[in-house]
């Protein structure tokens, strides 16, 4: 079973890229972030024509998350991260697919830091940690996939000294990710590639992709019930080189 996560950076504007990648890679389950489309503007028919059932939580111009599955309609569990009834951002959706609980998330960027946006990022991280703990307590196979907007270690960022004050790399952000993982989650890519330089995002500016000046900010966290079945993990980095593509590349894992 192949599960992928992809920050598409605008699902309608990047639809040709998304459909090309779906045909090429043929993942069984896909988590999408940054749809940047209201609920009624999600390209459901085009996704269906590509062979995928979908559930999604849209938002005009910003955010937005979706879960696609090839063989069944994902059974939605929730489209809200618990803990803040006032939070109107479309950043989380959770469903059961083929017996696996899949949480698709788009964690706040948090810049500029310090400031209100950074405070929101850390509070969102804390809510995620609380929810993740309740998921672990259910002792089910769980995959938490998406754009976490954090580089966990210096290995995950090109020239880390340039990022020390950025919300994606500040000590508080990295500590929040480490605390979350320490609950018992497995960082899939890093587990299979412990010492490799792996990036999932390259900025549009300063020829970042050409220079391989990237960041690893898209992650899979696996519960103990599924971590032992992890067989492969990687990044379809060539997709970042396509025309009119996202600044992220698709990331994937294979589960036996």
Structure description:
With 256 residues, the protein is of the alpha+beta class. The protein has one domain (2-255): Endonuclease/exonuclease/phosphatase (Deoxyribonuclease I, Chain A), CATH 3.60.10. 25% of the residues lie in helices and 26% in strands. The chain has seven helices and 14 strands. The strands form three sheets. The chain has a six-stranded mixed β-sheet with strand order 3-4-2-1-14-13. It has a six-stranded mixed β-sheet with strand order 5-6-7-8-12-9. Strands 10-11 form a two-stranded antiparallel sheet. α3 runs parallel beside α4 (171-181). The model has no long low-confidence stretch (mean pLDDT 98). Mg(2+) binds at residues 7, 34, 147, 149, 247-248. InterPro entries: AP_endonuc_1 (IPR004808), AP_endonuclease_F1_BS (IPR020847), Endo/exonu/phosph_ase_sf (IPR036691), Endo/exonuclease/phosphatase (IPR005135), ExoIII-like (IPR037493). Belongs to the DNA repair enzymes AP/ExoA family.
What does the secondary structure layout of this molecule look like, with pairings?
Elements: E1 2-7, H1 15-25, E2 29-33, H2 44-49, E3 53-57, E4 65-69, E5 75-78, E6 92-97, E7 100-106, H3 116-137, E8 142-147, H4 171-181, E9 186-187, H5 188-192, E10 201-202, H6 208-211, E11 214-215, E12 218-222, H7 224-227, E13 230-235, E14 251-255
Parallel strand pairs: 1-2, 7-8
Antiparallel strand pairs: 1-14, 2-4, 3-4, 5-6, 6-7, 8-12, 9-12, 10-11, 13-14
């Amino acid at each position: 079973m192949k599960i992928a996560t992809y920050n598409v950076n605008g699902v309608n504007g990047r639809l040709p890229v998304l459909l090309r990648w779906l045909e090429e890679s043929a993942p069984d389950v896909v988590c999408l972030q940054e749809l940047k489309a209201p609920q009624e503007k999600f390209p459901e028919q085009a996704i269906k024509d590509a062979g995928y059932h979908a559930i999604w939580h849209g938002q005009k111009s910003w955010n937005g998350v979706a879960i696609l599955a090839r063989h069944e309609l994902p059974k939605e569990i929730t489209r809200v991260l618990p803990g803040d009834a006032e939070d109107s951002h479309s950043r989380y959706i959770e469903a059961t697919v083929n017996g696996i609980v899949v949480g698709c998330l788009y964690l706040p960027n948090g810049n500029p830091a310090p400031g209100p946006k950074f405070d929101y990022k850390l509070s969102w991280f804390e809510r995620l940690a609380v929810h993740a703990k309740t998921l672990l307590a259910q002792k089910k196979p769980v995959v938490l996939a998406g754009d976490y907007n954090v580089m966990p270690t210096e290995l995950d960022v090109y020239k880390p000294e340039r990022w020390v004050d950025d919300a994606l790399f500040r000590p508080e952000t990295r500590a929040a990710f480490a605390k979350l993982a320490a609950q018992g989650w497995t960082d899939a890519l890093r587990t299979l590639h412990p010492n490799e330089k792996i990036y999932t995002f390259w900025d549009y500016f300063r020829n970042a992709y050409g220079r391989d000046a990237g960041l690893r900010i898209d992650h899979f966290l696996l519960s103990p019930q599924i971590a032992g079945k992890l067989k492969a993990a990687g990044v379809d980095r060539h997709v970042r080189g396509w025309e009119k593509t996202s600044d992220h590349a698709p990331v994937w894992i294979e589960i036996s």
